[in-house]
Write a structure and sequence with these properties.
The chain has 7 helices and 11 strands. The protein is α+β, with helices and mostly antiparallel strands. The strands form 3 sheets. Strands 1, 2, 3, 4, 10 and 11 form a 6-stranded antiparallel beta sheet that branches. Strands 6-8-7 form a 3-stranded antiparallel beta sheet. A hairpin with a 2-residue loop joins strand 7 and strand 8. The radius of gyration is 24 Å and the shape is elongated. One of its GO terms (cellular component) is preribosome, large subunit precursor. Component of the ribosome assembly machinery. Nuclear paralog of the ribosomal protein P0, it binds pre-60S subunits at an early stage of assembly in the nucleolus, and is replaced by P0 in cytoplasmic pre-60S subunits and mature 80S ribosomes. Pfam families: Ribosomal_L10, RL10P_insert. Keywords: Cytoplasm, Nucleus, Ribosome biogenesis.
């Protein structure tokens, strides 16, 4: 009987080597971008949606390059201090990479980048654990936008429902979520069924570096430690 591939031992040194090579490739790509493009922006994001961000990145593909991932790797790439920075004053960007952060290297004019980032806003369904932006309450009575086949599923979400002549009914008022409280898995699923989008994917510029100047958009506490983005 042939041996299962899943049972084969894995040499940890190989996986570590691959991880190291991947990080080195990112470091080199960031350093090459710093030399190639006219300016670099650090930015933060909230409610990241990978597909939407990929579309945004594709729009700027011919003029810009983006990096997301480990803040520590990005910091090392640029240099964490004036002593080890790869280009004069670019360590100021490195010091501001914390939390959900990224880098945008670009040849676009400053005004264009500011407009693109400030105007960018994409609405989506909130995920489990997100804070509800409003209270959503369903009143007792028929729920005509739900088909009778959905009645068992709605009950599993905690909704007090029943079928009345093939129509789904709420037998009492039901609060789906409370403003400012984290969404449960059931609340997130119910909001999706209701078509209510509470999450907004946004990008915020933190700072801008160019050979001529450094500009700060958002004040952040000075911190050399940095952190890995989620």
């Amino acid at each position: 009987m042939p041996k299962s591939k899943r049972n084969r031992p894995v040499t940890l040194s190989k996986t570590k080597k691959k991880g190291r090579e991947h990080k080195e490739a990112i470091v080199n790509a960031i350093r090459e971008s710093a030399e190639k493009y006219n300016s670099v922006y650090a930015f933060s994001f909230e409610n990241m949606r990978n597909l939407k961000f990929k579309e945004f990145r594709e729009q700027l593909k011919s003029t810009s390059r983006f990096f997301l991932g480990s803040n520590k790797v990005m910091q090392v790439s640029l240099g964490r201090s004036a002593a080890d920075e790869i280009i004069p004053c670019i360590h100021k960007v490195s010091k501001l990479l914390r939390g959900n952060s990224g880098l945008c290297f670009t040849d676009l004019p400053k005004e264009e980048i500011e407009r693109l980032f400030n105007e960018y806003e994409e609405y989506d369904f909130a995920r489990t654990g997100s804070m509800a932006s409003e209270k959503v309450e369903l009143k007792e009575g028929s729920l005509e936008h739900f088909t009778h086949e959905m009645e068992p599923f709605l009950r599993k979400q905690g909704m007090p429902v029943r079928l009345n002549k093939g129509v789904v009914e709420l037998v009492s008022d039901f609060v789906v979520c409370e403003e400012g409280k984290p969404l449960s898995p059931e609340s997130a699923r119910t909001l999706r069924l209701l078509g209510i989008k509470m999450a907004t994917f946004r990008l915020h510029l933190i700072c801008r570096w160019s050979p001529e100047e450094f500009e700060l958009y958002i004040e952040r506490p000075d911190d050399d430690s940095g952190g890995d983005s989620a």
